[in-house]
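Hi R.,

Here's the chain you asked about this morning:
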Amino acid sequence: MRINTRGGRSVVRHGDQRLRFVVAASVVALVAAACGSSGSASSASSTTTAASATASSSASPITLPVIGDFTGSDAFFGTGQVQGMGPAIAALNKSGGIGGHPLKLEQCDTQSTVSGAQQCATKFASQPVVLTVSVIANLKAAIPTLSNSVVLAGTNLLNPPYSSNAFQIAPSGATVDDVVDQVAKASHFSTIGIIATDDAVGESQLGFIKAAAGSLKLDTQFISATATDDTVAMQKLISANVPMIYVAALGAERAAVIKAYNELKPKMPLVVTGADASYGFLKGISSYEPTSFYTIPGTPLVPGDVPSSDAAKMSAYISAEKAAIGHAPDTINVSGAYAIDVAIALLKGAGVTSSLSAKEAWLHSHTISALTDVSYSNPKLNVLSNYPPGFDKISGTSFTSASMNLSS
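And here is the predicted structure, written out as tokens:
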């Protein structure tokens, strides 16, 4: 698909700066529409665009490629992030799109596999900007093929170096796990209990916590990543009378820990982080949800998680998402909101047809208005700064901003 535009200059507002961009005549669209795809990675036929868009109905859309886990075991990750992008895309298209052209997404499904991710990357290898909303293993499989693209990666585990063409649309993984230590210190705990899986997920989270722990003592119990009964590890921490238990695991492994906690009913609070602070995960454990249950979701989930100046913006986003998907946005949805805000700002600010180096330079030098103002100001990593991870009490499938002092 090609965009045929007439040369013209548009002016947009971004923070306190006026950003100008030129859309050249008859430029190639951001993404060529797929004309059939070989292999097992399928291009989802569904695209995200605003039905009520006021961008010119006759203008060809700017199509943004998205590599994501839309079917298979990790489908919650890709579908949830795309759901979270809806309000921003609708607002953009209603206000005229980018240079009069509506924005839409073209999804390529990894089917939650490494091979699928590689095939999607091959399909989009010539595109200047590619969004990736896949779990870390699939994401890492796709990136090498996308060396000529700006890759916007929806995860907090990639931590790409400053020199990389990949930009993580999330804070460093360390930022999230740092909150574990902040909670412990705010609560005046000298020791915390940790249940960690004996795999890369548990080890990486534990490494971040240790780096920030200082004098905080960690009583760690390791469990198998395939364990279904974690009562032994849980009982050891209960017997040690640790004041708080943190779970460094994901998915089914974390659900097994939570189930053990619920069966033993200890008094100390249970804290989890990451993608399991999601509607689907919490709905799945609703029959045995703990009563003293907190999450560090990696994204702000309620207005109380963001600075007061951003509370109204956060409230409006929550309302829009509730209307669109039927429940309050979870951490995966909100991650998608930041992802599309960064993508839109980049396309408006650097221009659709600018060079790879120009797009990278733009990202490194600008503040981006999302649910909170964010930037790539870290001199070592391409990760978003000024991105509040949140700390929330969980009740059913809803979240309430909580004090980090769990002893009060």
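One quick note: Residues 75-94 form the longest helix (20 residues).

Cheers,
M.
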